[in-house]
Amino acid sequence: MSEQKTPTRRDFVKGAATGAIGGTLLGMGAYSYSPLAYSRMSKVNREQADFGACRSVKVTSISETSWFNNAHLVGDIHAAGGLLVDQYSINWPPFGNGKGVAQGSYKDGIDSIKKMIPGDLEEAWATQQKLSLHPDNPGGYSCLIEVEDLDGSKHKYLLDAGWSYDWMDQSFKREAIDQMLAAGEIEALILSHEHFDHFWGFPVVMKYNNKIPTYAHDGFYEEGMQYIKDSGYEGDLKVIDKELTQIRPGMMAIKFNVPIITRVYGEVSLAFNIKDKGLVLISGCNHQGILQMTSTAHQKLKYDNDRFYGVYGGLHISPFEDWDPKYDDLVISLGKWDFERVGCNHCTGHLTAKKFIEAGYPVVQGTARFRTSSPDYLGNGDTITF
């Protein structure tokens, strides 16, 4: 494993306190969404790193339903102390200890299941259901990305590992991800960030391939790095410590340093240059904000036709369906980039997807299967090709 300097809680709080906004608004990334933030971005020369091109990218939503009840999730966070509370202390599975809200810890939780993971995930999850808050609420976020090179060869990557061991194992089997992992067909796992719904399902990946090359932001905390080890990982952990990390021709990881709710730090998004089409951006949550993601890509990367072609994933606009008028400005400003294909889901929010459709954006809609609650965006089992 590569070595890294993990941030402390003090680093997180310091980052939150010295950012452009404070407290809750900073944690939710609201300032990043505002026209004011966009107007204040420095006018700099475009660096335009050349990272090659690929022929196409196909994304399959394995699971975008991170949890099934907003009220339970938000209620637990507030009861535990608010948006800046340490996620490992809330007492959610798989780190519950039976002591109640805000009394959890990584150590107590992992001690109850360490001998069971990744070999006996059913028993591990059953154990945690007896110790944790709202154990049936977790789902998870994960998608399969298939990249076609210019020579026609294809390469598979997994973005994120979800949350619930039970739900993610079912979802992996539904999309044959278990078979792909076991056969070594998936070349790497990319962890967008350390949040519970994107990372805590890590042992499910390990169940089928515990040596898969894995990428992680250098903002992962000590608990997150230990969880990777405790899950039985024996592969090459690639810590992303630079703003731009090329994965393969036409595929670039972009690192954003941003404090996020529940004491998480940093997110990695992906950029693809589709030959003769332009740039495609894929995110897990996009806590850095859609304006920062698009502006950074515009400044840093060289891509065909100098145009944005598509976007997929969580865009982090009204993830709890609590629409604020300021988000209307964001919906309008997104039109600046003239995307040809918009595939949104997860923390984009159903209200946001509806707003996109009403604004006439080329939203690729889904089928509302496998407990996805709306066809307005790409749900569980749905695909999009760029």
UniProtKB/TrEMBL annotation:
Residues 68-346 form the Metallo-beta-lactamase domain. GO terms for molecular function: 7,8-dihydropterin-6-yl-methyl-4-(beta-D-ribofuranosyl)aminobenzene 5'-phosphate synthase. Its EC number is 2.5.1.105. The chain crosses the membrane at residues 12-33. Keywords: Membrane, Transferase, Transmembrane, Transmembrane helix. It is an enzyme of class 2 (transferase). This is 7, 8-dihydropterin-6-yl-methyl-4-(Beta-D-ribofuranosyl)aminobenzene 5'-phosphate synthase. The lineage of its organism: Bacteria, Pseudomonadati, Pseudomonadota, Alphaproteobacteria, Hyphomicrobiales.
